[in-house]
Amino acid sequence: MGSLFYYKISTFIFTKPHFKNNLQMEAITDFLKELRSRISNPFFGSFAISWLVINWRVPIGLIGYKQVDLKIDGYKSYINLISSNYSTKNYIVYPLLLALIYTFGFPLFRICIIAFLNWIRTIGNNWNMRILKKSHVPMEKYLQERKRYDSAQKALEEIIKTESKTIEDNRNLLNEKLTLQQEVNTEKTEVNTLKNEKSNREQLIRDMQSQLAILQYEREHQRDITILNGMWKMDIFSNQTEDRSYDIVIDKSGDIVILSGREDNWSKIKNIYVDFKKGHISIIADMKDAKTLMLSPFEPNHYKLTLLELSISTIESNGLILINYMEGEDNFGTKYRFRSKNY
Questions:
Q1: Average pLDDT along the chain, 343 residues, taken 10 residues at a time
Q2: Are the CB atoms for 268 and 246 separated by under 8 Å?
Q3: In this structure, is residue 241 part of a structural domain?
Q4: What is the CATH classification number for the domain harbouring 304?
Q5: Contacts of 206 (CB under 8 A, 6+ apart)
Q6: Nearest CA to 223 among 282, 266, 277?
Q7: Does residue 240 sit in helix, strand or coil?
């Protein structure tokens, strides 16, 4: 009863908006703790129950009646209900007497009941003893067996206690094992995470080294004529003559040799500049003009300085970047296409 009253009081107070302030909350909490300690007193609970039983009209009217129901029973309001049923005897004297009787009288009554039951049990034991004296089993033998029984019962109780302690120890060991297993799993997870981070960093380092090697290779071969060494299929497209195709070889010195029945030096590469990122190459060469080349590819003394601006495509092989295709035109408007025959 006291706990229920405390719960209702605390619920009513803490749901009001004006008690939201921290200082007020602390003060109310201290007050309710003190109130709960007093309400939990057996005398106070007995008094409250006695008061509700004697003055049953008041709680029933307050809880179950509406204003209309009160007026039907002759009450004007809840206040009128309380004041109309007020009397010193019903509100104070009788509940106080019942609380005193219950608080101080019931423990004595309970002691009397326990004493009566023990008295009855003693009488029963004595009666059994007198009956057993007349049996065929000697009393001394019975007492010995009874003593053995009591000893066995105590030993059994000790075993049960020991087993309970063993079970509790096993439960604690199991919990410790589970805790250690969780710690091991956590450490394994952390180790795996560190391994993954290490692997990712190593891969990042390898990628950076590869990119660095590519950049170093590109920087070293931006002006390297030998990057064009090998056999090519050269196609020339000109508005002045028909389109022609030649099999050519570019050697280490930059000479472009036509392979058409007999070898002929058609051009000489002077300088190149390769932009690998943009896929572009600029070639400066002494070349025969397209018209002379197409009319008479082996005719000498028709060379002129030419600039070729070509887009390129590349492939990677054994860590090297190789040009396998070039296409574009020279500064005179002649279009060229070079296809590698080395790959």
A1: 43 45 63 64 78 82 78 76 78 84 82 88 78 60 78 84 84 90 91 92 90 83 86 85 83 83 68 88 77 50 74 81 88 88 77
A2: no
A3: yes
A4: 2.40.128
A5: none
A6: 282
A7: coil
Question: Using CA atoms, how far apart are residues 196 and 202, in angstroms rounded to an integer?
Answer: 10
Per-residue pLDDT, 197: 92
- Give residue for tokens 């034991």: 125
313 falls within a domain: yes
Assess contact for 5 and 41: CB atoms under 8 A.
Answer: no
Q: How open is the CA angle 112-45-87, to the nearest 5 degrees? A: 105
**CA–CA separation, 337 vs 327, rounded Å?**
4
Distant-in-sequence, close-in-space partners of 196: CB < 8 Å, separation ≥ 6: none
Helix (H), strand (E), coil (C) string for 141-170: HHHHHHHHHHHHHHHHHHHHHHHHHHHHHH
225: nearest Cα among 305, 323, 312, 315: 323
Residues 146 and 128: their CA atoms lie apart, in Å, by 13
Q: What is the DSSP letter of 322?
A: E
Q: Which two tokens stand for residue 238?
A: 């000109």
Q: Which domain holds residue 277?
A: 225-340
pTM of the predicted model as reported, rounded to 2 decimal places: 0.38
Note whether residue 33 is domain-resident. no
Residue closest to 321 by CA, chosen among 275, 276, 273, 272: 276
Residue 105 lies in a domain: no
Residues 6+ apart with CB under 8 A from 82: 58
Question: Domains in the chain: how many in total?
Answer: 1
For residue 170, give the amino acid letter: N
